[in-house]
Design a protein that fits this description.
9 strands, two-stranded antiparallel ribbon, globular, seven-stranded mixed beta barrel, mainly beta
Length: 106
């Protein structure tokens, strides 16, 4: 799922949950992206150093969602693949901060 041109996103915890934050780095115009997000591939790096592929989707009517590939934390906890609502997209200096919302349950 992660392409060579995926943007690095640093996450504040070892996993996602409602209210967790991830900062996308390297976007050419962070303020413009935050105002009108576009679909991109992301390489999530969690606070324990674990990383996984993700995709930010922006299709209406649900708004932005983040689809995350399965991974295992450094402590050995398996985390299943998941899709999360993104409840906030805000510029933060030269980064864009995503605030994670509720998981999308199928």
């Amino acid at each position: 799922m992660t392409a060579p041109d995926a943007y690095l996103a640093l996450c504040t915890h070892t996993h996602l949950f409602p209210g967790a934050r991830c900062r996308i780095q390297g976007l050419p115009r962070p303020a413009a992206f935050a105002a009108a997000p576009e679909p991109i591939e992301v390489h999530l790096r969690f606070s324990d150093g674990t990383a996984t592929a993700a995709e930010l989707h922006t299709e209406p009517p649900t708004g932005p969602t983040l689809t995350v590939a399965a991974y295992t934390t450094t402590a050995g906890t398996p985390i299943a693949d998941s899709t999360w609502a993104v409840k906030g997209v805000a510029p933060n200096e030269d980064e864009v901060e995503l605030t994670i919302g509720a998981p999308n349950r199928a």
